[in-house]
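Sample intake sheet
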Amino acid sequence: MLKATETTGMMKQEGAYMRLRRKPWANDWIQQHPELVISDASQVAQGWRELFGNDNPVHVELGTGKGKFIDEMSRAYPDINFIGMEKYESVLVTGLQRILHDRRENVRFIHGDVLNLFDFFGEKEVDRLFINFTDPWPKNRHEKRRLTYKTFLSLYEKVLKNEQDIHMKTDNQVLFEYSLESMSRYGMILKNISLDLHNSGMEHNIMTEYERKFYQKGQPIYRLEAFFPNDKKEE
């Protein structure tokens, strides 16, 4: 998800800006579906497996945007519980509409900020995290807002099960290189690094809205997987 800035009401896309259309009815829609959208951490006080009613793996997309990725993933992998976390209600409501159109029991959303991730998940409760086309925040003074900055990595370390991984995709080379360095410095193990995902031979790749646009323009997509080793977690 390419994050929006509340102060400008704009959505940032690789140095350009698109108008983030405010949907005044979005919050009402979200409030009408507490069975699908979690807005208060107390709703999952007993844990996500209790909410889903099964012990299936839990995969979380951080910044789920309009929900295309998580929608298609939940169709392709019905034995995995998918949760999309999105801060902006005017964006999240589109994902909610997708699920309401073709209801599936293995999808939920969180209306909340990634900074509050540990409020919604217990220790070692998550089996995989996805970070797809997040805002690169290119200015140095905004480094702490990047979702691969060390503060965020410490949150991911808390919620991910031992040696379970993060999957990241971006079209932004600078952010990708930054993420490789940030994760490596933090002590994470990197694997399956691709500098051109769509020419890598990878199978079963599900695209996000932005990924499809970038791919159609011929822009390379960068991808990585990373995990926290056991010895890192035990320190």
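Comment: The radius of gyration is 17 Å. The first helix runs from residue 26 to 31.
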